[in-house]
Design a protein that fits this description.
The protein is an alpha+beta fold and 367 residues long. It folds into 2 domains: 189 residues, Trna Endonuclease, Chain: A, domain 1 (3-Layer(aba) Sandwich), CATH 3.40.1350; 150 residues, ph1033 like fold (Roll), CATH 3.10.590. The longest helix has 15 residues. It is elongated and about 85 Å long. The relative contact order is 0.13.
Length: 367
């Protein structure tokens, strides 16, 4: 049977309110556009009345903090067959959208607004994930729900794991006050997970082939940014998870170095492969010296056992770098929305970070 929402005014006794018949469908879309949080999931709106390659218009297209794309379609006066078929048709188009496609749609609908900046503003400073549209979901918004639509959506979601659901809104008016109540047809605990997109298109932001992110952690005095600046290197270690990605840095890579909790402190070029600190040599004033013989502020694991009890590699690995530009730690550069994560090194695809850090360090953004 159709889902129903009840609302009661409670004074001396409970008085049930009757849903009002008003032009809610015409207002509901604008309410969502004004505040997407009304849909329960925090969304950054990508576009409104978005034209598909099939010549149809998606009511609302949004993206959440995980990079999942949300198709929001209002039921209006469509029949169950029409609304479900239309929503599925839109999903078939959305699953083929690449990272670049989504940014293009956003730029078309919000000209003059930077996607990465808007993403950070919307999600409390969280940087845009590398992968956009790895998954998508469909939400049908309705002010009433008939038996047929309920059966079709339940069948698709629970039997075939199609990520489609209905958010039902009811409007109430009582003693001069207006109220809007909402509920999901299928509770969150029973919903199908968002569907993965097509495999032929790239969900990742484009990479220029040369720029890398490096996290230079200063925990427990293991490392010192003063050392790295003076002698020209970055390092990571203490376990396989920490050193593995750093050891993948190719010679010639341009690295953007981030100190967790502070910001970006340097940009440079990798000049040699990663080597354990106990074996590493760095060139100083044309003279090659053992890393362990340098006047260092950090210990770099030089006084610890290189292999853990389970045989795991706990070496600190040193990567030599020719610095293009650096700043002292107290002058580290940071803006809301810049890229940062726990990997010791990874490909840097984040456009906002590349642009803003390059400006801050007076670089040509073209690698």
């Amino acid at each position: 049977m159709p889902l129903e929402i009840g609302l009661w005014r409670v004074t001396d006794k409970a008085v049930q309110l009757t849903p009002a018949r008003m032009p809610l469908e015409s207002r509901l879309e604008q309410l969502i556009l004004d505040d997407p949080a009304i849909l329960e999931t925090e969304l950054l709106l990508i576009g409104h009345q978005v034209l598909t390659s099939h010549g149809k218009l998606v009511d609302i297209l949004g993206i959440d903090v995980e990079g999942t794309v949300h198709i929001v379609e209002l039921k209006r006066d469509k029949t169950p067959r029409e609304i479900v078929a239309q929503a599925l048709d839109y999903a078939s188009w959305v699953q083929g959208l690449s990272n670049e496609d989504l940014r293009d749609i956003f730029n078309k609908h919000r000209p003059g607004t930077d996607f990465d900046t808007a993403f950070a503003d919307r999600f409390g400073g969280t940087p845009t994930p590398d992968d956009l549209n790895e998954a998508h979901s469909i939400t049908v918004v309705a002010s009433d729900l008939d038996d047929s639509t309920e059966r079709i959506v339940q069948y698709l979601n629970t039997t075939y794991s199609v990520p489609i659901n209905v958010m039902l809104f009811r409007y109430f008016s009582d003693q001069g006050n207006d109220y809007l109540a909402r509920t999901w047809l299928i509770p969150a605990t029973r919903q199908a997970a968002p569907s993965g997109g097509a495999q032929h298109r790239s969900t990742k932001a484009a990479w220029n082939g040369s720029d890398w992110y490096v996290a230079f952690g200063l925990e427990n005095s293991t490392r010192s940014w003063d050392d790295a600046q003076e002698y020209g290197f970055v390092s990571a270690g203490g376990g396989e998870w920490y050193s593995r990605s750093l050891r993948k840095l190719p010679v010639g890579a341009r690295i953007f170095v981030y100190v967790p909790g502070s910001g970006y402190v340097g940009v440079g070029t990798v000049t040699g492969p990663a080597v354990p600190a106990s074996e590493s040599k760095l060139e100083q004033n044309g003279v090659e010296k053992l890393f362990s013989q340098l006047d260092l502020k950090g210990d770099y694991g030089l006084r610890s056992v290189a292999l853990g009890q389970d045989g795991a590699d706990t070496n600190e690995y040193i990567v030599p770098v020719s610095w293009t530009s650096t700043v002292d730690l107290r002058e580290a550069f940071w803006l809301k929305g810049l890229f940062a994560n726990q990997n010791s090194a990874c490909k840097l695809r984040h456009e906002l970070t590349l642009t803003e850090v390059s400006k801050a360090f007076h670089l040509d953004n073209k690698a």
